[in-house]
DNA sequence: ATTAATTATATAACTAGTTATGCAAATGTA
DNA sequence: TACATTTGCATAACTAGTTATATAATTAAT
């Protein structure tokens, strides 16, 4: 299939589907070849029954990796075909235990040789090929169990996008974004306070002129995240990290992390030994981020903000 | 999936189906993650259109390995979603050429980054694993194209069963089978003749006592094939191979081949240089077998049989 | 120039699975 | 002991494909 060479690995699903169709189509013909009156889709259920003697529908479904309704339907078909029967002698009346009939046992014997032939044929293909499909499927089952494809793709997305994020110094043109991004989250969770308006309306005067810093995260040249380093007086800390905000539209790009790291770096450059922050525990993702950045809880400082119920510090 | 360890390679179809489901389920989530309003099953069609600019439904189906009705339905859905449109400017009015709309082109650009991320994620899994699933699928596509699974299984069946066939010397207890197997095919295609009755009713006298041989093929201890080596007098040949018959129930076990080989071997043992046979060209499988055994056409000998329209010899 | 065969597509009916849901039996809990 | 929750199964409705078939347009053949 030339198509797959062009399209790349993202068509893996399609490629698998086609191979599945090729293999299962031939499976039907194989039963015919051996003169067995049997439908391929019955096989996993039938095999389990032949092994286990007596088992419930839900147990079968779990064993073979089908949904319960799928097994339910297959069981009904096989009962109609006379291969299995309900065994009734269970106490739990919800359960529908099934066993092979005489005819079923006969077919299971008849089928044995066929399965061996198929096994040999497939082993033959594996021997002819450089890459072992059977072993590869086993490995993939394990690896995707460990970490699903969607998880892996989303990690790759994050990694790539965070490369496209630039952290730059504040410029007057970013004042609007600095204000809007902060107002957005503050007014969602709390109420805007006096101290907020001062800093957000006039960052030059209230933050920069006092010796603080503001960093802006740009994605595709748009400001999508901001964070300030505010000079503290009469305190064991030189700076407070505050007014961190990331646009919800730009989530999943590790922008908070990148801003936090950059702010800590900047504080170090400015000679700080420790930085301080205030937050609220209802902001769970934020608190998580602070822990990841290395902040730890502290107690007892005074704060002008009502919304503060947790205080943290980062030793640089 | 423990099930697959127990059940063996014959469950390859089931295993493939499960892996396909795992991968395609995540594919849907991936489109969601990237905020693209897109159904995974559209992808192969969409990709082809994005590459080829303008192409008919049947061409797409062939390219991506789907059936034409499948593509037909997908096209309809994508038209409804506004991603593609009919391009009308074809002369052949049967054809329904389709192209991407503006919106489609936009999405194709949007999707590009996503495909790259998936590619990287899958490459990551491949790098983590010892057995390359992608490469294995490619190899299997090639190998099954060369020789299908059903062909391989049927060859294995034949091989195994021919091992269970024993070629033994004639004993009086096989007279009935010798007669019945021959009467079956002769009376199906021709009419029994005088010479047939003589040899079949009294093989001891008409074949063995005159220095001929009869071999019997046993499968599960039942006589399922017979073949005679008849002494010829006043001829360049020492023996004629005749009365070869195989039960239709025992077909596909190479019994004709095994009998023919054994008869030739026996003739050699008896000092013959060439053996001769008579047949009729309407018996195509038989003629094919004779060629495979090394017989070649000859002309001009006299024969007592009306049904003979081809004569052959094998140089030993 | 007809007629027959082929081609391109659409539609219907089927297949082998899925998820969602409802019901009855069994189990847990106050 | 009564009520809520959980479990096991069946059924309905859906999905992503298939094969079979009908129809119209085109091409080939007499």
Automatic annotation (TrEMBL), chains A, B:
SUPFAM superfamilies linked: Acyl-CoA N-acyltransferases (Nat), Winged helix' DNA-binding domain
Residue intervals of the N-acetyltransferase domain: 176-316
InterPro entries named in the record: Acyl_CoA_acyltransferase, ArsR-like_HTH, GNAT_dom, HTH_MarR-typ, Tscrpt_reg_MarR-type_CS, WH-like_DNA-bd_sf, WH_DNA-bd_sf
Keyword DNA-binding part of the UniProt annotation: yes
Alphabetized UniProt keyword annotations: DNA-binding, Transcription, Transcription regulation, Transferase
PANTHER family from the UniProt entry: TRANSCRIPTIONAL REGULATOR, MARR, TRANSCRIPTIONAL REPRESSOR OF EMRAB OPERON
Protein name, UniProt field: Transcriptional regulator, MarR family with acetyltransferase activity
Protein species of origin: Flavobacterium nitrogenifigens
Lineage of producing organism: Bacteria, Pseudomonadati, Bacteroidota, Flavobacteriia, Flavobacteriales
